[in-house]
Design brief:
It is a single chain. With 554 residues, the protein is of the alpha/beta class. It has 4 domains: 183 residues, FAD/NAD(P)-binding domain, CATH 3.50.50; 113 residues, 3-Layer(bba) Sandwich (FAD/NAD(P)-binding domain), CATH 3.50.50.60; 114 residues, FAD/NAD(P)-binding domain; 95 residues, Rhodanese-like domain (Oxidized Rhodanese, domain 1, 3-Layer(aba) Sandwich). The protein has 15 helices and 31 strands. The longest helix has 15 residues.
Length: 554
Amino acid sequence: MAPERGCESLVIVGGVAGGMSTAARFRRLDESAHIIVLERSGHVSFANCGLPYFVGGLIEDEADLTLQTPEQLFDRFRLDVRVHSEVVAIDRAARTVTVRSTLTGAHEIVGYDKLVLSMGAAPVRPPIPGYERVRTLRTVEDAARLAADVDVAPATAVVIGAGFIGLEMAENLVGQGLAVTLVEATPQVLPPFDPELAILIADELVAHGVEVETGATVASIEERSVTLADGRVVAADLVVGAIGVRPDVHLAQAADLVLGPRGGIAVNEANQTNDPDIYAVGDAVEKPDAVSHATSLIALANVANRQGRRVADHIAGRPSHSVASLGTAIVKVFDLVAATVGWSEARLRAADRPFTAIHSHPFDHATYYPGATRMAAKLIFDPTDGTILGAQIVGRNGVDKRIDVIATAMAMGCTADRLADLELAYAPPFSSAKDPVNLLGYMAENVRSGDCDIVAAGELDGLVAQGWLLLDVRSREEHAAGAIPGSINIPVDTLRDRLDLLHGAPVVVYCEVGQRGHTAVALMHELGMKARNLDGGYQTWRAVLRASGALRHT
């Protein structure tokens, strides 16, 4: 994309990640330009991802959320930062914006050579009776109001929406001593995840006292309660809305800037709108998606920061480029961590895109070193060329490291089987000689090469109906503690001597997590038998059935 040449006056609408990254980067590239940042709230540079933790009291001082003040930004960068300044109109012909003071109501006209829109996204506020009582979380002011509500010592709270923010709010309100009910319209918490991973997060919420209501919607909100669509009434001294966000595009629409198919501002590779003097960055913008290569709405701070830097480069006359977004995200839910990158199986299935999914349950570090804990990992890839399409990991330790490695591999074009070749840091307190990411690579390699023919949990009933046997190769004790109905038990270490019990029938083999099952299937293949391994073993099968409601026992 050809860079711009020269800019005497740069006006940026909105601060925080995208806006302030643009401003600071452009100042480093051009000392002479007049850079004006217009922010409608009272804080131009703050840690919006830290807001739930301020409400929860983990961040005690509101000032800790403020990364930079207007005064600090002027001293260091000579930025003209104006808070409580809301842009209400753009005149593209005159190249001016109309600014209204949110304190006095006074208006002024500000001219620009280049304009950058960084308005972010606004919380969804559905037309539910009584919704005006609902608190949302977007700004420091929102967090302060919510924290003040908590200080009044309410006993009960309802959080509407079980996405990332909803889960963080539920945890922090429980930490403040409230009895919390989490209401989610879809059948599961964390909708971006696949059900067998999401159910693990639901378990963690329930274990910490959260009442989880999935597949439920709110009909009305009263003074001290919430009424669900099925008529049940839930006590709610406090109600928090975390249904989701929509790109804030009202200024762009009023200025006849083109929107994309997802409802965000449409931009080119340099983040220019259809007006070459107006750029847009952050949550209000449609971004290229790394999996579909179409546009998507990904609301992530690091993406906004990256876009701000690239826009500053382009305005300053430097080469600039865009990067497709992977949607890498992570959330802490009490003592559990859930992370994702790329697309889920459900999303790929809805798009009718072919994929192969594999599940693993590795330990976060060497089991002989104290404190090792299991994680549940899922890798999804293209069955033809091995392109990694997505991954999800849930666990207590080491989740962030593994999802970041996979995200980096995706960005670099690494295929699923090549994950086996990554040389990752290893010492017993941190990993195993075969890191969980390496293990996913080995599994993908086995599947792609044909060494291992896997069966998804959802395929079992159909195969059994066709005459396949279910073989549990775990120990007798494990089988007695819980097994797939109808399966026979032959421990893997005795399998060679007892194959006659199978009577030559085709077999689906399973163990606890899939590893012993793979060993058994390899043996049976060598002996000319027809055998397939249950992906992710008994643990994944249980999670799939529990998520579907077919198995309730936890």
